[in-house]
C-alpha cells in the first residue's frame, strides 16, 4: 500500500527553498535566445582537463573562498582561469 505524502509536511533544504522562491521569476525565452544559451552551455562542457600541482596552503585558501561564494572550488578556479584567459 502506497503512503500519501503531504507536501506541506516536507522539509526543504535552504537551497530547495531558494529555488522554490525563485520559481515564479523564470520566464520563457525565444527559440533564438534558447539556442544561444544552449550553445554557451555546450561550449562550457567541451572543457579541457588540466592537472597541476598547487601549494597546499593556497589550495586551502581557494577552497575557503569558493565555499564562501557557495560554489565548488573547481568551478571557482575555472571561472578565474577563464577571466584570466579573456583579459
Average residue pLDDT: 87
How do the helices and strands follow one another from N- to C-terminus?
HHHH
Q: Look at the helices and sheets and give the structural class.
A: mainly alpha
Radius of gyration: 19 Å
List unreliable stretches of 5+ residues: none
Major sheet: none
Percentage of residues in DSSP E strands: under 5%
Number of strands: 0
With helices defined by DSSP (H or I, 4 residues minimum), what is the helix count? 4
**Oligomer class:** single chain
Shape: extended
Write the layout of secondary structure elements.
Layout lengths: L13 H9 L8 H15 L10 H14 L3 H14 L1
How would you describe this structure in keywords?
single chain; 87 residues; mainly alpha; 4 helices
Task: Characterize the structure shown.
With 87 residues, the chain is mainly α. The protein has a domain at 53-87. Helices cover 60% and strands 0% of the residues. The protein is built from four helices and no strands. The longest helix has 15 residues, at 31-45. It is extended. The mean pLDDT is 87.
What is the structure about, briefly put?
The chain is mostly helical. It has helices spanning 14-22, 31-45, 56-69, 73-86. The protein contains 4 helices and no strands.
Amino acid at each position: 500500500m502506497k503512503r500519501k505524502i503531504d507536501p506541506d509536511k516536507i522539509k526543504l533544504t535552504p537551497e530547495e527553498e531558494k529555488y522554490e522562491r525563485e520559481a515564479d521569476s523564470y520566464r520563457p525565452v525565444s527559440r533564438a535566445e534558447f539556442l544561444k544559451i544552449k550553445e554557451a552551455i555546450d561550449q562550457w562542457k567541451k572543457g579541457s582537463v588540466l592537472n597541476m600541482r598547487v601549494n597546499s596552503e593556497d589550495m586551502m585558501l581557494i577552497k575557503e573562498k569558493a565555499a564562501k561564494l557557495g560554489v565548488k572550488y573547481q568551478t571557482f578556479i575555472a571561472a578565474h582561469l577563464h577571466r584570466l584567459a579573456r583579459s
